[in-house]
Amino acid sequence: MNLCRPERVNLDHAPPSWDEHPEWFITLCCALPGKNHLCTEEIGPKLVQAAAFFHDRRIWYAELFLLMPDHLHALVSIPFHHHLNDVIGRWKQWTARHLGIAWQKNFFDHRLRSYPSANSKFKYIEQNPVRAGLVQKAEDWPFVFRGSRRRKDSEVSARQGPTSGRTASIIQSTTFKTACRDVRPYLTLTPQ
Questions:
Q1: pLDDT per position as a tens digit, 127-165
Q2: What global pTM score does this model have?
Q3: C-alpha distance across the termini of the chain, in Å
Q4: Which contiguous run of DSSP H or E holds residue 146?
Q5: Distance of CA 97 to the CA centre of its chain
Q6: Phi, psi of 85 (to 5 degrees)
């Protein structure tokens, strides 16, 4: 055991069984930080298309998927019969093989448990290119995929069940449940 550097422990991030379609805030980083690997005219649109492919095939539901030069942020939900690590791993594997992107091992994930948390992460992701000085307005950033609009607090409050006691997650929306209803277990996770 190295006393200077603790051993890395992989934590179980499985959502509870009652949360069939959890929403995740994820960050994927390139292996070599500080360089523009993702936001080029050649690579950027292909990565956005790959995200849209998974969304259209209902492998994941990407509410927001935004590229930065050396990393990406996303708000995604994974249907209950897929595992987050498998889906992200296959997407990274495909983009590495077909687009030559060297990703860091693993990725950062955080399960969003409430609408205010999801809304805060949505705004954080959306404003990332502005904070970095890459654009003046978030809507001018070209390397982004939006799967749906962010709902207002009033819409979410109206959807809460009378006995739930907790804020409705964005993923409990009718839109996502409709998208996941006909997901088939045999879907391939590799874009063609």
A1: 999 999 999 999 999 999 998 654 444 333 333 322 222
A2: 0.70
A3: 44
A4: strand 144-146
A5: 20
A6: -60, -40
